[in-house]
Amino acid sequence: MKKLLCYFFPGVIALLLTVNVRGQGLNPQAQLKLDQIVSQAREWVKATVLVAAVENQNRQMPAAYASMTQEKWESLPDADPFVRAFTTNPAAEFLKQKKTPTITEAFLSDASGVKVAFLAKTTSWSHKGKPKHDVPMSGLTWQGKIEVDRSTGGKQLQVSVPVLVDGKPVGSLVLGVSTSALVGE
To answer: Is residue 5 part of a domain?
Structure first.
């Protein structure tokens, strides 16, 4: 029996890792819906308005952005003109057109992880150093785990895709996806 467990155990670990990385508790139909949303997001990040906004900020970050800290960011109310500028720029307008009941949040970041545009104020000013930004900056898609989002208060999971220029990542787009919408609750 001991021998059988030794051979069986690695398979169980591999299975658990696969579920942890991919499914995050989603049933196959919900994962398929999420995969379709990720495919749509890969198309959205090709839009000139998003690519141009990211490239422009990568070239010349405004001084006010460079001096922003997480502490300052947290102290700003949603209605502050600095925050509102991220919800009213052309890239944000594009994101608003893509919002659905399933997509609960969206934010676009430059190469350094600093925000370019969003639907609503994010919890963090920069996501550099976090998988939701760093994985897309390596050219890959990232999928987070199901959690209650501090920004929206809803149960969701996040996915992110790279913004590419000539096949190279220059930024990231993160979407918050409602799990209840995915599973049809």
So the answer is: no
CA distance 113 to 128: 4
Report whether 185 contacts 156 (CB < 8 A).
no
Q: How many distinct structural domains can be found in the chain?
A: 1
Tell me how far the alpha carbon of residue 39 is from its chain's centroid: 13
Rounded CA-CA distance 27/35 in Å is 12
**What is the domain extent for residue 138?**
26-183
DSSP state of 138: G
Identify any residues that bridge with 109 across adjacent strands, giving them in sequence order.
Answer: 115, 172
Residue 28: pLDDT above 90? yes
Q: Residues 68-116: pLDDT tens digits? A: 999 999 999 999 999 999 999 999 999 999 999 999 999 999 999 999 9
> Would the pTM count as exceeding 0.90?
no
**Burial state string for 82-106 with b = 16 or more CB within 10 A and e = fewer than 16:** ebeebbebebbebbeebeeebbbbb
DSSP state of 19: I
Q: Is residue 13 part of a domain?
A: no
> Can you give the CATH number for the domain in which 122 is found?
3.30.450.20
Q: Classify residue 140: in a domain, yes or no.
A: yes
In a domain, 2, yes or no: no
